[in-house]
Amino acid sequence: MASKVFVSGCFDLLHSGHAAFLKTAARFGDVYVGVGRDETVAGLKRKPPVNNEAERLFMVKSLRYVKDAFLNSGTGVLDFAAELTQLRPDVFVVNEDGHTPEKAALCARLGIEYRVLQREPEPGLMSRSSTVLRSCGGALPYRAELGGGWLDQPFISRLQPGYVVCAQLVPDPAFAQKCGGLATSTRAYLQRLQAAGLNRMAPEALAELTFRYENGVDMEDHPISGAQDALGLCIPGVSLQYYDGGYWPRELRSITDEANLRFLEEHLSLYQLPPRRADFDPLRGHAPRQDSLRKLASSAELCVKAVECGSETALSGSFTLCRAAQGEMFPAMFPAHVMREVERLTAAGRFKNWKFTGSGGGGWLLLLDAVNLPGTVPIKISACNPVADAV
After folding, report:
1. So what CATH class is 4-128?
2. For the domain with range 134-389, which CATH number is right: 3.30.70.1150, 3.30.420.10, 3.30.230.120, 3.90.1170.50?
3. For 122-154, b where at least 16 C-beta lie within 10 A, e where not — what string?
4. For the whole prediction, is pTM greater than 0.85?
5. For residues 326 and 148, what is the distance between their CA atoms, to the nearest angstrom?
6. Over the stretch 170-179, which tens digit does the pLDDT of each residue have?
7. Cα→Cα distances 286→282, 322, 326, Å
8. What is the pLDDT of residues 98-115, one digit of tens each?
């Protein structure tokens, strides 16, 4: 009699990576798959699946590597516990992204061999994941500035070079409200280029075209909008833009590793503040002091470290430093009516730290580890190039 192998997962947006994983699992015996119900998937992923549970079950059962499949009856990370106990497989197989200590402990209690497989694509095929595929379709993205804001302006980076860190956000219906902070003005120029069929080019080239189009001047002149908005909208994942006195970054790279992006998604959300007032001017009364400039650059370096190392402590420290530096240099970013709302939220104690995304004055607030706070929008970060694919 063949050994029984158990696998559990969401299996949304079924792709070649799923098939390759199940093919490898089948080497250990007959594969039985527990598919997460819609409610469970929505709870774990913080959004409903693209395909409902009936569709996902049908597709998994149709694969030739699968002996049988069924819907899990439980909830949460161990939604399959009852099915695992009843089936009593010889082996429980997970991929490296799906491994958790709770799963390993459950198998140990039941005397089931627990195997963790590396994510390996079928030879000759590209690596695939549902997270990446989900972020590749649909409308144009938005931009959230995570750290270093203002360093893309030459009058700042000539005095103190440093990074601006931006995340390319998957659209959410809430973002359509024009309250500021997510590069909606620059996004409008990008939409016009898209409508003209000019969006199908390399991300950095498209960002430069958008930057020039919005400002209507050559790089050597004095555009109003910094380059971080165009780059943040066009560069997938998290863009690390290093400025040292020019309108365009001297160094540009991006982070698209799924683990890094998932870390940010698990800890960050957005909260809508009152919209910016018509007379809002973030430069009013600005004073670029050298000690504050160094603080701003340090906050950006700490943000880069947080993204690369998955450090919540570094991310919180970056928020605190950035907020302090911007408050010292650009007091108009923190108008009284907005700060009253921020202070009300802070008093409720439902998040660990905060910062403005963009130039403040209202718009969207970036929150660290918000818990049960009505009105928050979890962020999802694009890991591919949705701009060229947007329709």
Report:
1. alpha beta
2. 3.30.230.120
3. eeeeeebbbbbbbbbeeebbbbbbbbbbbbbbb
4. no
5. 9
6. 988 888 766 6
7. 8, 15, 9
8. 888 899 999 999 999 999
